[in-house]
Amino acid sequence: MSTPTPIPHRTQVAIIGAGPSGLLLGQLLHKAGIDNVVLEARSAEYVLGRIRAGVLEQVCVDLLDEAGVGERMHREGLVHGGIELAFAGARHRIDLQTLTGGKTVMVYGQTEVTRDLMDARAASGAPIVYEAADVQLHDFDSATPRVSYTHEGVRHELACDFIAGCDGFHGVCRASIPKERIQHFERVYPFGWLGILADVPPVADELIYSNHARGFALCSMRSKTRVRHYVQCSLQDKVEDWSDARFWEELKSRLDPEAAEHMVTGPSIEKSIAPLRSFVAEPMRFGQLFLAGDAAHIVPPTGAKGLNLAAADVRYLSRAFMEFYADKRSAGIDDYSRKALRRVWKAERFSWYLTSLLHKFPAGAGDTGEVGHRMQTAELDYLVHSTAAMTSLAENYVGLPFEELIERSKHPGRPGYSKSIPQKQKPL
Ligand code: APR
Ligand code: PHB
């Protein structure tokens, strides 16, 4: 893809990384009249070659609409009102829609979200540099930060007001922060996910998350004719160890008999292994540098929260920049890290909980091995028979409300009313 416009030497927001976080932020700012330049280390084709998850919360759908890139998603995406949990040989539906007062999720691949955002960026003519090598950040603690990079063999410098670090887990932005100013919290899980993409019809109408003595399995989809399936595998496994036949056989063995019977198999068009990690960096702001998305946090994919959390950061950050440029108010900027982290930790907790509930943990410390499996089965049995427990799962899965919405809905007389809220507030 060619660079659409000459790259300026100065901009308001320099965005590092053209994954979903950087592209979505760039599009929202561009629509609000805020100049920004996106610098991406890889080519557009490389970025689009990455297969990631595919479940969007309503807030993510709304933000993509706000960015003006929702048209194809609404046409091709699948709206799901429930998920299924399989364990002990049977399947149980969690009715997300009924349990959450009408909320649903959109099944639409992250690759397609990225493609839509890239197309919108190209159409807008806003500057984006692919294959920007050796990006370096300068003076982000001052009011005049800069970013330097090499493009087509020439070194460039970009002056800006703010830097948005949207460059993923392995990016340069978090790595540029002195160790004493940042804290890392991390848990690496003792297994991975082997995923395949195949052009066959889905096993069921909705996603199936399966807890099985042989390990976790997930039947997801990209359309009515394309599936994305996963099985828990060992971290020592290589993709070459898993022929298509072995994958399908293993998946079948981890599903309930009815799902196994309905499964249609076919050749894989992509196959990859991903490790599972919980990771948070605190804080998410350093002077004029703001981290967003995978640059600041990673969740294991079990709760489908990675992209949604990135979108939530972008929502907070875009509004903060809009407020700053429109009204000269810096409250949003100053509160970005606190607000974002409050949501991040809730998604981390939920993703860790679902991962712990559904995977086979090797025998060792804690509730692992056979004891762990029995505990999981008891919890799943409780979960699918308790409206309270199912509601908790459902409201987290479809996405928690944003902080400002929570504050607005808090009032005395409701269960869970917080006593720290001023008592003079009258019940609504
Ligand atoms: N300079 C410029 N760009 C860089 C650099 C660098 N030094 N390092 C990394 N990048 C680019 C990567 O090539 C990638 O395209 O930053 C982009 C980061 O994109 P993602 O890793 O997709 O991260 P993010 O945009 O935050 O998306 C979060 O993606 O990984 C999933 O589960 C995650 O769904 C979530 C979403
Ligand atoms: C996917 O479709 O790739 C997917 C869906 C749900 C998850 C994780 C991945 O929890």
Key structural traits:
single chain; alpha+beta; eight-stranded mixed beta sheet; six-stranded mixed beta sheet; 37% helix; binds adenosine-5-diphosphoribose; binds P-hydroxybenzoic acid
Structure overview:
By secondary structure, the protein is an alpha+beta fold. It is built from 14 helices and 20 strands. Helix 1 links the parallel strand 1 and strand 2 (36-39). Helix 1 (20-31) runs parallel beside helix 6 and helix 1 runs parallel beside helix 10 (306-327). Mean pLDDT is 93; it is low at 421-428.
Oligomeric state? single chain
Structural class: alpha+beta
Number of strands: 20
- Order of the strands making up the biggest sheet: 6-5-14-15-16-13-17-20
Give a concise summary.
This protein is an alpha+beta fold and 428 residues long. The protein has 14 helices and 20 strands.
